[in-house]
Amino acid sequence: MTKSFDFFYDLGSPYSYLASTQLAGIEQRTGAKARLLPITLGGLRKATGHHIPPPQQLKYMSEDTARWAQEYGVKMQIPKAFPVSTIRALRACIAADLKGKGADAMHALFHAYWREGEDISDATVIERALKKAALDGKALVARTEDQEIKDYLRKNTDLALARGVFGVPTLFVGERSFWGNDRLQFAEAELRRQG
């Protein structure tokens, strides 16, 4: 059986974007496969009582994410439309995942938002980004209104809450959780230890 680890993320999270750029490397080095679990950070915050961070934290986050992007050698910007509702885009990722293309959709939409600065709450932006990734953007966006897809996103968020997730990205190796982009090395070490 192939080893796996869980990756809980929201497309609106800059640290989720940064962590997503490192998943392929972790998979290659450990032989483990990431199980991608899009969740709504807003739903998580509401349930846990965490609210929107103060302006000082947002200023720090902007500087900190720039440092991490430089460290990883990836492009990144804080989009003009920040924060945005990511629900439709997250549902598109789930619809793609049901066709075995979840990683392609996730990376395409992270790219559109955090590298291109596009507003991923806009259905046409989502469709265009998915099309650029050789996915059927029109069909995937259409599926975002299906109850099955809506239920999947809710279930993922409920699963995150049940497992004690309070922020994203959160990785699980077995039942051990690792919260934050700056904990990837510890998650990778745990994968090696369990390997």
Q: How would you describe the overall organization of this protein?
A:
With 195 residues, the chain is of the alpha+beta class. The protein has helices at 14-20, 23-30, 41-48, 55-72, 87-97, 102-115, 123-132, 137-143, 147-162, 184-194, and strands at residues 4-9, 33-38, 170-173, 176-179. Strands 2-1-3-4 form a four-stranded mixed sheet, sandwiched between helices.
Please describe the topology of this protein:
Elements: E1 4-9, H1 14-20, H2 23-30, E2 33-38, H3 41-48, H4 55-72, H5 87-97, H6 102-115, H7 123-132, H8 137-143, H9 147-162, E3 170-173, E4 176-179, H10 184-194
Parallel strand pairs: 1-2
Antiparallel strand pairs: 1-3, 3-4
